[in-house]
Write a sequence for this structure.
């Protein structure tokens, strides 16, 4: 990284020059890394614990990605888990995609950004939060006091008084604003409160009259203070929270822009080196470029930061959820690069990928943001290369699809005597699915005399934007029915590592989520115990099953509850989900909790086998592969991992062999609890998607595997008995899945397959080792019979075709063309093809044949055959047949002289063939006259 006291001012300086940042307001370094460090140290000196950034993949089902610094503290703000510290400070990685269309076009919008925050959990409140925010801005970062404006909620007199009377901000620089701008809510109900924001004034010379803090050309909001002091109830009324909290956020990129004195966030040292790398690949000068080029470079710079950190945190490109976010951002970056004329990787490979080259710069400057990125660089770069090359192929398919869409639009317009228009839905399909720029769609369409329904395109875009905002734009905090229970119940003590049977006290009973005092026979109930041997679902392992007994004496049981699942809720409280089979269960009673021993053993076997599987995968296909999800069940295990291609049979055999070898070694497992830093230093692997505390549990198979894991495991690998992979498949782009069985499930699987093989041997009347040969012979015989049947059908179709040649029409004057359009009832697609080939060879050139049939099961078959003379007139069979097939609810295509199509609406076949006849006669009559 270059000298951190210097920063490119891209808009006013030649490419070769650097601009020294004016640090007259502060002697300290104003690089992005320094701003982050100074913020954290400022609050650390005021009693805040510096906590690490959480993953961009949140431990929260209500949000897709981490969108705010407060997200990792949400359970504390809700009172679901106790605070570990009274105050904290973080530099949080964040992703927001609801304003993706504004990225690069404004000075401040990003998809990836860092939010610096300080938090109070029932400790200090408004006065200290305001005082420290001002002190940080003025004393630490050296901002001129007369350039800072303040907004407060219109009814928050307390905050106004602190800012005006205690801090001394003049009244003319304090704006009271409504709830839309300055009242934070987490949802329809739940914690909420007023907020106060700090704005920097770039143009104080404009004075105080008619000021608008929303004017981006003059102001930028850089610090937001949320005073979480109320709970919004169902009726909309506000009640004070028992614990008042502080949640703040200072945008690192925004503060860097202010301190480094550059015109936008992109030209800070946090992003500009990435932009500069892209500019070099495009062979352009960013400072001398026009705004259109700069915008494209900014988009690349922003999106490359986002995708590098997302992939580092385990998100791989796919068509759903988080994976779609990554894929969309990669495709936008690639598209911008192509529009800028970037060809190849800039290192001599013209067919190579360019975004990995830009990603290398992101990784180079990532150390202070996330130290894990460099360690994962090989996987990140390989994923980006693979996705870009795949997308380039997809983009080329988009170009072909656009050509077909424009031909269809022209054909439809001629048939209906209208102006040809490409629908907004089709234009959006090209843009969103194939990544085809809408501006190129418009340009190509105009060249072909087709307009584009841009209003329809905008409607589709707005629909997607609304869906994106709904998915990504809010952190929802809701006070649930169980929240009152959580206030009186401590975390459940888990005993299940050491025992499967223990006494426990019923702390609470919930029916349909609501607390009750007792439950009777037949009731479905959630049971909360003070301690339990039952494992609660986590780390991929499903919850235990078993029984709760309530006994008046050793010989008399007064209640029996069958437990079918156990989950964690409200922090670390175990919820035992069951059915009362006998008697009555009451809060406060002591029960005997007994785990189903056989099922627990099955889970233990599969969990340890999962660890062995991950170790074997790393050994066979490479250390870069990583876990992307798992399931540890009683009947099987499932393991998802990042890999770009199917595993070969010999690789699967090698993986199985290694695991069974480790099982046979009869190795004792080691389990111990240690500080997380020590565990990572020792080489322990973290489980995908899990959240860890200061102390972690490490499960080790010496010489084979070491992982952070809270699950249950066998004591010795010999307990696993055997391991067998039952399937390997792709579940998303770059993600594979292995399902396997071990222990009792392994024995059951092998025995089941043996039964099937015995039955097959009996049916085929061969020995087991002869089954493959016998099946191959039978398949060969079947193919021969099918070919004979197909040949007979084709001959029948040709014979039928010979009887309809007389129905061919002759059109044209200067050039006579034969046209035949007929329905051939229920013959199959292959026979229909044979009939068309016969007819086009029988009829004298030029000739055009369209045949259709309905072979059953709601299917339609269509075929078009054009002789050379018709093709020379400008008609193409593939393009002509497409709109006809659409009328039958299908599609298809082919060569200029021959095409096939299918559909699912046989009731429209007659109409489709009639339209085809009219269109052929009309078009060929004009060309032959």
């Amino acid at each position: 990284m270059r000298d951190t006291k210097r920063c490119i001012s891209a808009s006013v300086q030649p490419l070769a020059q650097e601009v020294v940042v004016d640090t007259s307001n502060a002697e300290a370094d104003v690089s992005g890394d320094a701003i982050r460090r100074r913020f954290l140290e400022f609050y650390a000196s005021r009693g805040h614990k510096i906590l690490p950034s959480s993953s961009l993949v949140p431990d929260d089902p209500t949000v897709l990605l981490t969108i705010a610094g407060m997200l990792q503290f949400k359970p504390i703000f809700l009172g679901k888990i106790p605070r570990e510290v009274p105050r904290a400070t973080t530099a949080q990685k964040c992703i927001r995609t609801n304003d993706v269309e504004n990225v690069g076009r404004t000075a401040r919008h990003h998809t990836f950004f860092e939010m610096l925050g300080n938090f109070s959990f029932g400790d200090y409140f408004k006065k200290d939060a305001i005082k420290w925010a001002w002190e940080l801005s003025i004393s630490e970062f050296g901002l001129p006091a007369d350039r800072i404006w303040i907004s407060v909620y219109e009814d928050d007199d307390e905050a106004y008084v602190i800012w005006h009377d205690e801090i001394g901000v003049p009244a003319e620089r304090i704006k009271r604003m409504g709830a839309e701008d300055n009242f934070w809510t987490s949802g329809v109900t739940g914690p909420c409160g007023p907020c106060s924001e700090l704005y920097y004034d770039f143009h104080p010379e404009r004075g105080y009259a008619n000021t608008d803090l929303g004017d981006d050309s003059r102001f930028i909001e850089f610090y937001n203070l949320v005073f979480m002091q109320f709970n919004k109830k169902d009726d909309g009324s506000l009640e004070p929270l028992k614990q008042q909290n502080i949640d703040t956020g200072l945008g690192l990129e925004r503060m860097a822009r202010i301190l480094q004195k550059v015109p936008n966030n992109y030209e800070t040292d946090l992003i500009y080196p990435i932009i500069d790398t892209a500019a070099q690949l495009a062979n352009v000068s960013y400072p001398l470029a026009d705004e259109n080029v700069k915008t494209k470079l900014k988009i690349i710079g922003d999106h490359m930061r986002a995708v590098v950190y997302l992939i580092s945190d385990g998100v791989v490109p796919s068509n759903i959820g988080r994976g779609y976010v990554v894929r969309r951002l990669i495709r936008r970056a690639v598209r911008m690069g192509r529009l800028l004329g970037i060809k190849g990787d800039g290192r001599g490979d013209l067919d190579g990928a360019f975004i990995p080259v830009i990603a290398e710069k992101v990784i180079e400057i990532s150390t202070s943001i996330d130290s894990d990125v460099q360690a994962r660089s090989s996987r990140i770069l390989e994923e980006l290369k693979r996705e870009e090359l795949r997308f380039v192929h997809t983009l080329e398919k988009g170009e072909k699809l656009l050509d077909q869409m424009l031909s269809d639009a022209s054909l439809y317009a001629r048939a209906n005597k209208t102006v040809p228009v490409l629908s907004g839905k089709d234009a959006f399909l090209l843009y969103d699915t194939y990544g085809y720029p809408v501006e190129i769609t418009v340009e190509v369409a105009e060249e072909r005399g087709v307009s584009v329904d841009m209003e329809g395109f905008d409607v589709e875009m707005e629909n997607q934007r609304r869906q994106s905002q709904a998915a990504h734009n809010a952190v929802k905090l809701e006070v649930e029915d169980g929240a009152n229970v959580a206030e009186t119940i401590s975390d459940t003590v888990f005993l299940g590592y050491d025992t499967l049977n223990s006494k426990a006290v019923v702390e609470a009973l919930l029916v349909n989520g609501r607390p009750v005092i007792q439950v009777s026979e037949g009731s479905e109930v959630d049971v909360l115990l003070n301690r339990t041997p039952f494992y609660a679902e986590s780390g991929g392992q499903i919850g235990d099953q078993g029984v709760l007994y309530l006994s008046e004496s050793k010989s008399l049981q007064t209640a029996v509850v069958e437990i079918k699942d156990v989950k964690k809720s409200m922090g670390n409280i175990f919820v035992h989900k069951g059915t009362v089979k006998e008697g009555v269960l009451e809060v406060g009673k002591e029960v005997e909790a007994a785990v189903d021993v056989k099922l627990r053993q099955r889970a233990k076997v599969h969990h340890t086998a999962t660890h062995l599987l991950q170790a074997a995968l790393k050994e066979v296909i490479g250390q870069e592969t990583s876990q992307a999800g798992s399931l540890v069940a009683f009947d099987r295990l499932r393991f998802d991992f990042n890999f770009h291609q199917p595993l070969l049979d010999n690789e699967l055999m090698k993986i199985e062999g290694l695991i069974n070898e480790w099982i046979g070694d009869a190795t004792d497992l080691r389990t111990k609890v240690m500080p997380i830093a020590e565990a990572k230093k020792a080489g322990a692997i973290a489980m995908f998607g899990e959240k860890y505390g200061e102390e972690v549990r490490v499960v080790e198979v010496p010489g084979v595997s070491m992982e952070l894991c809270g699950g249950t495991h066998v004591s010795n690998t010999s307990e696993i008995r055997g391991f067998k992979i039952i399937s390997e498949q792709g579940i998303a782009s770059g993600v594979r899945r292995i399902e396997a069985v071990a222990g009792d499930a392994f024995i059951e699987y092998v025995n089941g397959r043996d039964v099937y093989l015995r039955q097959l041997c009996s049916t085929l009347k061969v020995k087991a080792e002869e089954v493959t040969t016998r099946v191959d012979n039978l398949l060969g015989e079947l193919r021969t019979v099918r070919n004979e049947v197909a040949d007979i059908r084709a001959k029948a179709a040709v014979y039928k075709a010979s009887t309809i040649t007389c129905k061919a029409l002759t059109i044209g004057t200067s050039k006579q063309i034969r046209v035949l359009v007929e329905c051939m009832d229920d013959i199959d697609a292959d026979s229909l093809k044979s009939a068309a080939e016969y007819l086009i060879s029988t009829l004298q050139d030029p000739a055009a044949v369209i045949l259709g049939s309905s072979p059953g099961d709601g299917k339609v078959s269509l075929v078009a055959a054009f002789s050379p003379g018709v093709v020379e007139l400008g008609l193409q069979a593939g393009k002509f047949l497409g709109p006809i097939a659409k009328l039958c609810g299908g599609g298809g295509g082919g060569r200029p002289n021959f095409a096939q199509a299918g559909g699912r609406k046989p009731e429209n076949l007659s109409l489709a063939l009639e339209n085809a006849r009219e269109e052929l006669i009309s078009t060929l009559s004009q060309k032959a006259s």
